[in-house]
Amino acid sequence: MNPHAYPPEDGDHPFVPYRPDLPSDEQLLERGRGVLDRMDRRRSVRMFSTRPVPREAVELAVEAASTAPSGAHQQPWTFVLIGDPGLKRRIREAAEAEERENYEEGRLPDDWREALAPLGTDWQKPFLERVPWIVVLFEQRYGLDESGERVHHYYVKESVGIAAGMFVNALHEMGLATLPHTPSPMAFLRQVLGRPENERPFALFPIGFPDDDCVVPDLRRKTLAEVLVEVRPEE
Q: Is the pTM of this model over 0.85?
């Protein structure tokens, strides 16, 4: 038996065939340009419509996000769905209390305030009550087995971060809008939502359709030349 064989030869860990559709170079580039075009139109939204969103649409986005790769395939995330008006109000009140301290009590350093200025944000978060749904993504710092014993999780933040990005993408692909919101600190979310000790808030996502009068900051994204570096061996 080869100890370095892949897949393992002992049969303890079963594998299944993976045969995806392999495009031609032309098809590959066409698909890539289509993905770029759609994703380049994605914007974070703070002005939402009250138009209802089917619960199933959010569930589909969560399922899509849960296909994300994760350390040792432990999937260390929990998506908590909130549609109850009373709970949304409590989340808004608690988030605004923290954000008011950031913006008005000097908890944010000057350079952070300067970076936020072009976005026009402040401590008020009315969209948290206006949207039909809120999803709070929690990272599982460790797992619990059937007897309640701790199970170590690997690469938790990396795994949950990838799932968060895929969640945003799934919502955008369906025609919905969201805003990755991280009120600081976020510990209140665990208390408000009654989550267990092993979970920690990672991000909050208001979900809905953009309002008819929605506007977003006129921002420039970095060009490919600014974000991509190719390293070549010295000739």
A: yes
